[in-house]
Amino acid sequence: MTETPPDSLIPYDEIVQEALRAVVGRVLGEVEAAGGYLPGNHHFYITFKTRAAGVDIPDHLRERFADEMTIVLQNKFSDLSVDEDRFSVRLSFNQIPATLTIPFAAITAFVDPAVDFGLQFQASDEEGVQEPPESGENDASEHDGDSPVTGSEDGSNVVTVDFGKKK
User: Fold this and answer.
1) Are 35 and 8 spatial neighbours (Cβ–Cβ below 8 Å)?
2) Residue 31: its H or E element
3) pLDDT: is 101 or 122 the higher one?
C-alpha cells in the first residue's frame, strides 16, 4: 500500500530555488566588493536561459544561443555589478566586448570547478526534459574539455534541485 503524499500548498521548490540562487548572488557580490578579483584559482561557469525575462544580451549572442548560454568569469571580465535580483558583467566574445545583464532567476547552473562546487537549477523545455547547456565561448582561459555542469558521479559537489510534480 503506497500512498501518494498530497500536493503541498507551500511552494517548497520555488523557495529552495530562490535560496540557492541567492548563494550565486552572494558569491558574485563578494567578488564585486573585492574589486572584481577572484580569490585563488576560483572561476565560475554560469549557465542561463537567454530568452528569460530580464535577460539583456546583444542580439548576435541571442541569435547564436537561442535557448541557453554558458559564460565564464575568470580572467577577462570587467564591470561586474550585482543587484538584489540580477547581475551584469562585461565580457569579450571573439574580441568584441559586450555587457550582459542576467537575472538570478534566469540562471540554470553555477559551477566553480576550482573547488568542485556546483549548483543546478530546475529548467525544463516544454516536454519536461532537461537539456545540456550550450557554451557561450566568451574569451576566457582555455577550457579543460570537461563539462562544467557535471553530475556528482565524478565526486564533485554539484547540488541538483529537481522538484518534479508527481504524476
Assistant:
1) no
2) helix 12-33
3) 101
Cα distances (angstroms) measured from residue 42 to each of 55, 63, 98: 25, 30, 22
Residue 33's SS3 state is helix
CA dist 80 → 2, 25, 37, 92, 101 (Å)? 51, 12, 10, 13, 10
In Å, what is the CA distance from 76 to each residue of 1, 25, 43, 91, 92?
Answer: 58, 20, 11, 7, 7
d(CA 41, CA 38) in angstroms, rounded, equals 7
Structure confidence by residue, pLDDT tens digits, 29-88: 999 999 999 999 999 999 999 999 999 999 999 999 999 999 999 988 999 999 999 999
Q: pTM for the whole thing?
A: 0.73
Query: What region does 40 belong to: left with phi over 0, alpha with psi -120 to 50, or beta?
Result: left
Ordered domains of the chain (ranges, CATH): 12-125 (2.30.30.220)
Q: How far apart are CA 147 and CA 45, in angstroms?
A: 10
